[in-house]
Write a structure and sequence with these properties.
This protein is mainly beta. It has one domain: Jelly Rolls (Sandwich). It has helices spanning 2-20, 32-35, 255-268, and strands spanning 36-40, 45-48, 53-58, 64-68, 72-82, 91-98, 106-112, 121-127, 136-138, 149-155, 159-164, 167-173, 189-196, 216-221, 225-229, 269-272. The chain binds 2-acetamido-2-deoxy-beta-D-glucopyranose. Catalyzes xyloglucan endohydrolysis (XEH) and/or endotransglycosylation (XET). Cleaves and religates xyloglucan polymers, an essential constituent of the primary cell wall, and thereby participates in cell wall construction of growing tissues. Keywords: Apoplast, Cell wall, Cell wall biogenesis/degradation, Disulfide bond, Glycoprotein, Glycosidase, Hydrolase, Secreted, Signal, Transferase. It is found in: Secreted, Cell wall; Secreted, Extracellular space, Apoplast. Belongs to the glycosyl hydrolase 16 family.
Length: 293
């Protein structure tokens, strides 16, 4: 009997140690139409390889975008994107989750283009109950226009994590105990779009979009969605607390992930609202949990 217990323990330990360092479940590549549909300017989206890859284009008439068919409460959402190459100054490529209504929740990735050879900026933000103003900006450690990279969000009751490939670049912990709202009851749709924002995007709006370089093209693939889908019958997901993203190893980053995040943040951070004493004389409560702030 004793040896039986012992062997069960060994098996469990093996399973546990195999799981701990694993990043969110490996995304599955699925075609665009499985999870998404175009939102506007349908003729500015091109489909390749049976919809496994798409391209959005922006010209002086319009940009374009798409959204998920379903709405989700918690889960893991990822997209592989290759940003607009060459002169992309003034353009913004966005990938975000958002709920509807006045007091909406939102989780944003925004990629701000630049002149040829100058670095993109990745801006992230989190809105809870209609309140945003939580911008962080980083440079990337690679050229995002050369290859596809994956950008993903893990969202559960404990934290919202932004990943670039497997590297966590930002964590927004549930700080309800500090009086900060956390997205937990408003299902979100996933959106992406490419548009002109030359009034603010590049060097604060100094660099304007050069329309002689249009169309500007961003490519997408790997339309992975693994979330609790809101159904007509269930306003809240009945399975809450039981899905893979709710489990222990996804409730906090592990040591290795924290080290990688610190590396990114110490080397590549341009702006962090948590350290902006001019705009916010009082530090926001959730910033107390920001180890790098
Ligand atoms: C664009 O390049 C300039 C000069 O290198 C840099 O200051 C800026 O942060 C870059 N990115 C954006 C989006 O402005």
């Amino acid at each position: 009997m004793a040896s039986f217990h012992w062997s069960v323990c060994v098996v469990l330990l093996c399973l546990a140690s195999g799981v701990i360092a694993t990043p969110p479940r490996t995304p599955v590549n699925v075609p665009f139409y499985r999870n998404y549909m175009p939102t506007w300017a349908f003729d500015h989206i091109k489909y390749f390889n049976a919809g496994n890859e798409i391209q959005l284009s922006l010209d002086k008439y319009t940009g374009t975008g798409f959204q998920s068919k379903g709405s989700y409460l918690f889960g893991h959402f990822s997209m592989q994107i290759k940003m607009v190459a060459g002169d992309s100054a003034g353009t913004v490529t966005a990938f975000y989750l958002s709920s509807n209504g006045a007091e909406h929740d939102e989780i944003d990735f925004e990629f701000l283009g630049n002149r040829t050879g100058q670095p993109y900026i990745l801006q992230t933000n989190v809105f809870t109950g209609g309140k945003g103003d939580r911008e962080q900006r980083i440079y990337l450690w690679f050229d995002p226009t050369k290859d596809f990279h994956s950008y993903s969000v893990l969202w559960n009751m404990y934290q919202i994590v932004f990943f670039v490939d497997d590297v966590p670049i930002r964590v927004f912990k549930n700080s309800k105990d500090l009086g900060v709202k956390f997205p937990f009851n408003q299902p979100m749709k996933i959106y992406s779009s490419l548009w002109n924002a030359d009034d603010w995007a590049t060097r604060g709006g100094l660099e304007k979009t050069d329309w002689s370089k249009a169309p500007f093209v961003a490519s997408y693939r790997g339309f992975h969605v693994d979330g609790c889908e809101e159904s007509v019958n269930a306003r809240f997901c009945a399975t809450q607390g039981k899905r893979w993203w709710d489990q222990k190893e996804f409730q906090d980053l592990d040591g290795y992930q924290y080290r990688r995040m610190s590396w990114v943040r110490q080397k590549y951070t341009i702006y962090n609202y948590c350290n902006d004493r001019v705009r916010y004389p009082t530090k926001s409560p959730e910033c107390m949990r920001d180890r790098d702030a």
